[in-house]
Specification:
Blueprint (H helix, E strand, L loop, with lengths): L12 H17 L7 E6 L4 E6 L3 H4 L9 H11 L4 H12 L1 H16 L7 H16 L5 E5 L10 E5 L7 H4 L1
Parallel strand pairs: 1-3
Antiparallel strand pairs: 1-2, 3-4
Helix pairs in contact: 3-4, 4-5
Length: about 170
């Protein structure tokens, strides 16, 4: 847990009981699928929602500005030994100067935006870790805690299971 924040702190009794039922259900499922739940916690509204994993990318679209094809290609060229200028010129030839500049500008704007921490890489890591939790017979449910308005911190990802310390007493 980041910064000592307990993701279950502040949940109502009704939310805790619903979470308990969901954890037991996931534990019994035993097999991973795209229909598995993802919890979304909105602390400022005291809301805890459950959506299906296959809906997550629509419900909370990842910021993919860092994965623009122009930038990915540039990084690949640099990794293959091209100089910065050579790689930039090659990208301009292949994508056009205006498109390359726009991709770079969007990327830098996203770096300056506070709370923009939910990226494609984070989304894919969540999916992979979720799948692995079932492969190792230790299923857990991801809970994304959304940042409060104006907060400097971004999204927080927590993993809950029957063995989550705050849930042990209610789930066994």
């Amino acid at each position: 847990m980041k910064d000592g924040f307990d993701p279950l702190d502040g949940l109502t009794t009704r939310q805790r009981l619903g979470l308990q039922d969901l954890l037991v259900s996931v534990e019994k499922t035993g097999a991973w699928s795209w229909d598995m739940p993802v919890l979304i916690r909105q602390r400022c509204w005291l809301k805890l929602e459950s959506i299906r994993l296959d809906q997550l990318h629509r419900w909370l679209p990842p910021d993919a500005r860092g994965e623009a094809p122009e930038l990915v290609h540039y990084r690949r060229l640099r990794a293959n030994g091209m100089t910065k200028i050579e790689a930039e010129q090659r990208c301009w030839e292949e994508f056009g100067m205006a498109n390359c500049r726009q991709a770079l500008q969007r990327f830098w704007e996203s770096q300056g935006a506070s709370g923009t921490t939910w990226t494609t890489r984070h989304y894919l890591e969540l999916v992979n870790r979720y799948r692995r939790s079932f492969e190792t017979d230790r299923p857990s449910i991801p809970m994304l805690v959304l940042p409060r308005s104006g907060s400097e911190t971004g999204h927080q990802l927590h993993w809950l299971s029957i063995n989550t310390p705050s849930m042990r007493h209610t789930c066994r």
